[in-house]
Amino acid sequence: MIHYKIGSSHPAAHYFDIDLHIPHPDPQGQVLRLPAWIPGSYMIRDFARNIIELKARGGERPLAISQLDKSSWQLAACEGAVDISYRVYAWDLSVRSAHLDTTHGFFNGTSVFLEVVGQADQPCEVLILQPTHKDCADWRLATTLPHKNPGVAMDDFSFGLFQAEDYQELIDHPVEMGLFEQLEFEACGLRHDVILTGNFNCDYERLRADLILICEQHIRMFGEPAPMSRYMFLVMVVGDGYGGLEHRSSTSLLCSRKDLPQPGQDKMSDEYRGFLGLCSHEYFHSWNVKRIKPGVFDDPDLSAEVYTPLLWAFEGITSYYDDLAVLRSGCIGQQDYLELIGQTITRVRRGRGRLRQSAAESSFNCWTKFYKQDENAANVIVSYYAKGSLIALCIDLKIRQLTDNQKSLDDVMHSLWENYQNQQQGIGEHEIQKIINQTCDTDLTDFLEQLIYRTSELPLEELLQTMGIDLAYRASSGSQDKGGKASESTLNCSLGANVKDNNGSLKLISLSEDGAAQIAGLSAGDEVIAINGLRANLQSYHDWLNLSAPDSEHQLTVFRRDELHQFTVTLDAAPQDTAVLQISEDRHAARANWWQRPAEA
Ligand code: ZN
Asked: How close are the terminal C-alpha atoms of the chain, in Å?
């Protein structure tokens, strides 16, 4: 059997040491390859750049290796088993790669395990060893990779021998090692663990209680039993971080300390609400994208981009259900939920990119556009997460409207799940649309094509009305205003720029196309030091936009790089780009059906 061994004799230098034993290599010259990207994060990352000291032996003799390209190598022809050894530099603190020091270790298989090309469908085993450094002596190990010894209990967090049915499984179970906190619970009878690494405070009981409700909500929506035999949230807690990546029976999360519920605080903070949404999002992916998936993801080529126009569904529908499930589980109330929808609408509305790129185009080009955003991104691209979740909202409300609330997007997800269970394969580009039409027994093709393949505005006002919800727009109240809530003080004017504090002055992060700043000649990256001859900072900037009149002229003194410039700006009236949702009238029964909660007054 293909056998991997991973350990570290030098964690302080961030090196994992890997040995690979191949009993039956291709005698003509075995090819080895490391993925260039990791499923769930659609960008070429070239993990192989972190491989060093690659060596091979055939029996007792060194074997020559020739490199084929940036991610693959070929061994010299030989008879019999071969042994490979190499090191991987692991110093990327993200959910996508690998990270190792004397405080903890984390890896995805895509960063550390070379694929034995031609034998990817073969079972393999991996021995995971404790790093030999003295600071690692008390470390434990957490992963959903199955133990090779079936007698090992689920709460055994020891190092040892693990197994995988094939290479795809091997690389779909991230591994955390260190002195983590561990918390366990059952949801619908299924064992769940939360592994928390870092320096933090947490109200564990509250986190446990909320996650039980959310996980049960998802399992019951798709129907018991859940498709995993256990589930693990691997959470890295840092000062300032955010990220999540879905796997078949676990997720890797990166969060900030303040995202966790704090002991002694019962209030729902915006940060904790966001963290529950993230956990909910990744958990929903266990069905939507890890199992129900685009056909091109069935056996994806991990050496190059794999294109699909369907991420609006796999990320967008997941983004729609992440907050909806947190509401349905009762962890947040309807005001919170309306605020979250309002924020998503605001995000999409503030970018001109929504008028230039459809959700399907955004999906297809995610490799080079969404994942490689620059300062002009909001003008030219739309997020398939944010717009995708609004498309899902529109589809859900449309089905409910047409069927008098007898059917919904939940039924579409049930059908997709049933089809997956029967066929065990990915779906074609128009499969979801077909199922939507069947679900409401109406041909919605034109409606759906508009949402997914066009750039026209979504019919949000009209559809939210069917639930007795008014959607209105107001001007922003300042650079911290994400929308979703009413505001007493909105800005009078707009510079057409996103700004941030720059040690007391102002930095322009991005400019709206044809906004006041761009027309005046300002650019992203400019540092504004004075407005009308007075020192500029975040407070004086907001006061200025508040007290000025639209179409009035102003002098801005700006550093571009190290050159001083003067610009004359004619301010715009502040655009009505910030969404606020409000319950307007009786539709209690419809909302209660949608939210699966007793309707609040
Ligand atoms: Zn996602």
From this structure: 63
pTM: 0.97
Expressed in angstroms and rounded, the spacing between residue 315 Cα and the centre of ligand 1 is 5
Q: Please report the beta strands in 109-202, taking only residues with DSSP state E, as ranges in sequence order.
A: 115-116, 124-128, 140-142, 160-164, 175-178, 181-187, 190-198
Question: Could you read off the pLDDT of 408-432 as tens digits, one per residue?
Answer: 999 999 999 999 999 999 999 999 9
Cα distances (angstroms) measured from residue 357 to each of 265, 430, 448: 43, 19, 16
Give distance in angstroms: CA of 163 to centre of ligand 1: 27
How far is ligand 1, taken at its centre, from the CA of residue 146, in Å? 24
Question: What distance in angstroms lies between residue 350's CA and the mean position of ligand 1's atoms?
Answer: 22
- How long is the chain? 601
Strands of the sheet with 72-75, listed across from one edge: 65-69, 72-75, 31-33, 115-116
**Cα–Cα distance, 47 to 128 (Å, whole number):** 20
Cα 263 to middle of ligand 1, angstroms: 29
Fill in the DSSP letter of residue 509: E
Q: Which residues pair with 6 in a beta bridge?
A: 18, 128
Of the CA atoms within 13 Å of residue 229, those in its CB half-sphere come to: 5
Cα–Cα distance between 389 and 364 in angstroms, integer? 17
Closest by CA to 506, choosing from 564, 563, 559, 566, is 559
Give dist(CA 463, CA 216) in Å, integer.
Answer: 29
Please tell me the distance between residue 601's alpha carbon and the centre of ligand 1 in angstroms. Answer: 33
From the first residue on, what is the mean pLDDT of each consecutive set of 10 residues in the chain (601 residues)? 97 98 97 98 98 96 97 96 98 97 98 98 98 96 94 89 98 98 98 98 98 98 96 98 98 98 95 98 98 97 98 98 98 97 98 98 98 97 98 98 97 98 96 98 98 98 97 95 94 96 94 98 98 96 96 98 98 98 91 86 54
- DSSP structure class, residue 216: H
Rg of the chain over Cα atoms, rounded to whole angstroms, equals 26
Residue 223, sorted as left (phi over 0), alpha (psi -120 to 50) or beta, turns out to be: left
pLDDT at 426: 97
Å from CA of 359 to ligand 1 middle: 15
The answer to whether 205 and 212 have CB atoms below 8 angstroms apart is no
pLDDT for 600: 64
* pLDDT at residue 586 in the model: 84
Centroid of ligand 1 to alpha carbon of 282 (angstroms): 6
Q: Which pLDDT belongs to residue 541?
A: 97
Tell me the CA–centroid distance for residue 252 and ligand 1, in Å. 12
- CA contacts within 13 A on the Cβ side of 510: 14
What distance in angstroms lies between residue 297's CA and the mean position of ligand 1's atoms?
Answer: 15
| CA 246–ligand 1 middle distance (angstroms) | 7
**Cα 319 to ligand 1 centre (Å):** 7
Compute the distance between CA of residue 2 and CA of residue 149 in angstroms, rounded to an integer: 17
The neighbour count for residue 480, using CB atoms within 10 Å, is: 8
